[in-house]
Structures are given as structure tokens and as C-alpha cells.
Amino acid sequence: MEYKTPLFMWLGVVAALFWGLDYWKIFLRSPLFFPQQKSTSLLIRKACRILLFLVGLAGWAYLSYALMQPRKAQKFTPSNIEVNDIILCIDVSRSMLAEDIKPNRLEVAKQRIRDFVKLRPTDRISVVIFSEKVFTLLPLTTDPALVDQVLSEISIGYLGSGTNIGDGLALSVARAVNSDTKNKVVILLTDGVANVGTLTPIQAAEEAKKYGIKVYTIGLGTDDDAKIPVGNGIFGTQYQLIPGGSIDYKTLKEISDMTGGKFYPAKSNGALKEILDDIQNLEKTEIKVNHKIVYDEQFYSFLLLGVCLIFGVEFLRRILLRDVA
């Protein structure tokens, strides 16, 4: 509960004070008279006077409270909010299990992207994943908790083998095109080279450029040979060796240059954090929010009750007590 005009309460208090002085005729000299009524009638009359006075005070209390204009905030209706659409296009091919960045590339990517998203609670986020096939894991949403949960649950294995960068980027662009938001960004993270798909990465980038969608590209992985776990054997976990430096930096840079984005090589956990921090700063927009608060005005009922009690007391005072002077 909040009060729009709390100091107005004192107007009611002062009015109640003057009413009480008049009610008990404090400043009037009582004339000398001889009561012709029985003592019982006098006691009843006095009791009625006291009762009416208390009811009158209650009326003035309600009126004083109403003058404070009590109200409850029901809801906030935001308007004029400018948001970004950010589509996270994440490689989930098997090579993302490589352990050259501990614990592995995918887990590092997930954690750093989750940290990035937490700093953008007003933006709409979508998650697209790709390997051989591409899939929209999460359409555009403004629910940070849902985005965080979806990112934490990304896994590898159900989209086949291969690295379909072109179709993954194209699907991300399609998600952005259907939005009315002005600023649209794709963050493409991969650790390999496009080797399957209907569209080439450059063809997909041309579509992004056509619709004014910036693409930030991140190549995740070191230049050293890396190991991928492939199962358990007699001597423990079995690994497959993949050559280092297998990321198509040239194509990733061309994509970002074409679309007005930026290319980043991420060769460590710390480097990926710095990259996402840089993107965070580049895409930081000043958001002007005007909140209109919808109130439930409470003073009407108190005002009505107070006025009714005061008028009721004044009416009975004149009828029962014949108190007119």
C-alpha cells in the first residue's frame, strides 16, 4: 500500500478536532436549568451521546485516511522498450568434445554463453544448434531462466555427424528475419570447417547481409592436436586424436566482414570470455523504458464510509438528542 497525499491526513484530524469541540460545546457556557427528566433517561441520553461521538470519530478517521489517497500498485506496463534480437548459433558436432580447452570445448562454450546471456535480461534470445542437421532449440524469448536452462542442457550426438555451418547460419538468419526488432545479431560459434549442407556459409552470410543482420563469428579451439573421448575400453577412456588448427578462420572472417560483425579466434577459456565481453560492449544499446503503473485506488470506499458515518451521526444527534444549537 502507498499513499499519494499522506500529509492531507492532518486536514481530517484538524476538522475532527473542531467537530469534537462543537459536539461537546466546549466553548459555550451551559445555561442553568432544572432537569425534568428522570435520572435513567439522562443516563441513556449520555450513553447515546458518547456512542454517537465515537461513531463520529470513526467517520472522521475514515475520512482522514481517505484524504491520504491510499492505493495499491497492481502491475507495471512497460512501453517504448528497445531490445536486441540475439540468435546463438552453436556447433554441436562431435569435435566440440575435444579436451584441448578444459573440460571440453562444448562445456566451456555453454558456460561462457550462459554468462553472456545473464547480462542481457532485456534482449530476446534464440538458440540454434547444428551438426550435420540444424535445429532451433529455442525460439526468440525474453525469459532469461528458460534460456539459461536450455543452454545448460545442450548435448552432442542427436544431429548426426558433420559440420553444417551454412544451414545453421541460414536458419539463424530466418529466425531473425521474422522479427520486428531493429537490431538483430547472430553469434556463430564453431570449431571446424563446413563439410555438409544445402547452403555454403558464404551464401548464408549473403542472406544475413541482405537483411542487415550482423554476424559475429567465433572459432573455438587451439592450434594443438586435441583428443576426443570415443568410449571406454579395458584401459579406461579411449580417445581419438584430431589435428589442431582445423578451424576455417578465413571463411569465418569473411562472414563477419560481409555482415558488419567481427571475427574472433578463441583459443582458451579466458579468451572466449573476453570475446563475449567485447561483443557485449559492441551491442550495448541504451534502453529507454517508461513504466506506466496501474493502481487500484482504495480511497473511494474509505471516503464514502467516513462521510456516511459523519452525516449519520449529525442526523441522529439532531433527532435523538435534539442537539441543534
Question: What's the shape?
Answer: rod-shaped
* Order of helical and strand elements: EHHEEHEEHHEHEEEHEHEH
As residue ranges, the low-confidence spans are none
Gap from first CA to last CA: 42 Å
Specify the structural class: alpha/beta
Say how many strands there are.
11
Helix content: 40-55%
Strand numbers in spatial order across the main sheet: 5-4-3-6-7-10
CATH superfamily of the largest domain: von Willebrand factor, type A domain
In short:
This protein is α/β, with parallel strands linked by helices and 325 residues long. It is built from 9 helices and 11 strands.
SSE topology:
Elements: E1 2-3, H1 9-23, H2 39-67, E2 70-79, E3 84-91, H3 105-118, E4 124-130, E5 134-141, H4 144-152, H5 165-177, E6 183-190, H6 201-210, E7 214-220, E8 226-233, E9 236-242, H7 249-259, E10 263-266, H8 269-282, E11 290-297, H9 299-319
Parallel strand pairs: 3-4, 3-6, 6-7, 7-10
Antiparallel strand pairs: 1-2, 2-11, 4-5, 8-9
Helix pairs in contact: 1-2, 2-9, 3-4, 3-8, 5-6, 6-7
